[in-house]
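Title: Prediction job returns without error message
Component: structure pipeline
Severity: low
Priority: P3
Assignee: unassigned

Description:
Job completed but the reporter wants confirmation the result is attached to the right record. Sequence as submitted:
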Amino acid sequence: MKYLCHFAHSHPDFRMAELESLVSFFEGKFSYDKEEAKHVSSFAIADDTPFLVVEMEDEELARKVCSRSMTLRAIYELSAIVQTYEELAKELLHQNFDFVDGKTWKIGLEAFGRSYSTFQQQELLEKMRHIDLWNHGKISLKDPDIVFGILEDVGSQRTFDAPTRKIYFGRKIADGQRDSIHKYKLNSRTFLGTTAMDPELSLITANMANSNPASLIYDPFVGTGSFLIACAHFGAVTLGADIDVRTVKDLSGAGVEGNMKQYNFSGQYEGIVLCDASRPPWRLVPFLDAIVTDLPYGIRAGARKVGKKKNKKYKPVPEGLTAAHFPQCVQYDVPDVVEDLISFAAQTLVKGGRLVFWLPTTPEFQVTDIPEHPCLELFSHSLQPLTLRWNRRLITMVKTRDYNEEVVNLLNENNNNSKHPVAHSDLRSKVFWRPRKDHSISSPVSFDPEDQSSSSSSTSISGS
């Protein structure tokens, strides 16, 4: 059966990734035209569209997907695809609307790339007066049992008299869950930091991690707890860690715990461990259903790990003060963070578990910048443009095999492979790049969001 997905006009590169993740989560099946899907994920104004026709096995799957989706506005059971309102009236003239008997209904009209006044909408609806729908049920504009939608696709930034690309007609199955975004808006948080992830992207991230009431989800760079809140929204039990106590708790003592309490998620919050992510305190056995995190970017302030600073004398901790001692920390570069995170995920995720993390990078990103691991398979990588010089991607990986001695041997065999330079190395210098004083210019970073190039080279992680 054909359905029309109507996406919100934001974060286009996340639409298909979330949709595919949700269908997989509900163990459903669907299909779509891959060329049409490219337009749905496009950043180009000339051919972008928020509409995609898909085939799903049943209406129940469409309802389930809408019950969690943050990128979808709604899903419709598709009845017609035409280019003019006259063609639509002819197409609907012979359709049967007996299922509307004894129910209330209304028709809504929405246009992408064009706005209509109330009078203009009434004029367009008058063209539908001869269809059989008007002979069944009763019209109710406030709280109808059935909502039909006329969805017009003109295209963004086009003139009012531009020709319509497509007009869709269908019965609304369900709305997406975009109202949840406003529930968790940042300006209402008890505890907020400078690096807090906005609620829409946090909830999309939680969907990519398959958060649910039966899952335990861990954030090793928890910060102010945006991902813990998003995962708890879907019922998950959450756990966090961070190396900086000032990040997870403010002077008033509110901290992440205060945020979780604000949204009544205290029962799904196991707490935070103060630790070094490069030396996790956990037993390296499968116990996590997902790892969700936003890596420190190293632009304003990078990640840190415990270590001795250069040219600084070691001073033993005075006896009796070890419990309150904060050890010296050194810089923890993003490529090292990524490799350690993937290695940790391979050992602690259950089979089928997911590693979902935000990777700061540049437009020169290639898929091979993501280290390979025998236990993990890349599910998706979605782009969020930030500036001309850098952006970030949401990387989703799925654990497909157990971590065992055979895997360790594979890692050791690949340990000698040469590593190619990755786009997320030395990010700070790329972001703050300036021409040299002698006016010689090195290649500045260019931005092309459509560039999804990848090379045949690969990066491997050394075994432990």
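Comment from assignee: result matches the submitted record. The radius of gyration is 26 Å.
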